[in-house]
Amino acid sequence: MPNETSPVTRPAREPHPVTGAALSFDLAAEADKLRREPTWAAHGHNAKTLVKHPDFRVVLIALRAGARISEHKTDHCVTIHALEGTLRLQLRSETLELKSGSLLALEQTVLHDIEAVTDSLFVLSLGWSSS
Asked: How many structural domains does the chain have?
């Protein structure tokens, strides 16, 4: 395991198509790969872009219990689909818990942070106007 002063470098991933007329993913296998990379071991979080179009992105994210994505917002509409574990989202006016199988949709520019209550896996989808 790297010491605190050495950066964690992610090994080169096998390339995969991120655009196309039809893309299919084994999410359990992708999650297993994420959790085997040094980033997961060192920081308790890891992510992989699965789909990347000019107006749409899909990202698979794994977070270890206690890991957090600091408060942020996007200029895009967002959905968070919890596949495993429990996530806690802090919005400006409320706290939400997303358990496995839950889906949350956020409008553009909604400030939020995400914390993994338990080891968690989720799919983040972002969409925006291409005009």
From this structure: 1
Res 11: pLDDT: 58
Region of 55 (left: φ > 0; alpha: ψ -120 to 50; beta: rest) is alpha
Q: Block means of pLDDT (10 residues each) for the chain, length 131 residues?
A: 46 76 93 92 92 93 93 84 96 93 90 93 87 59
Domain coverage including residue 104: 46-127
Query: In whole angstroms, what is the distance from residue 25 CA to residue 7 CA?
Result: 30
Please tell me the distance from the alpha carbon of residue 12 to that of residue 122, in angstroms, as a whole number. 22
Q: Which residue from 77, 83, 126, 120 is spatially nearest to 101, judged by alpha carbons?
A: 83
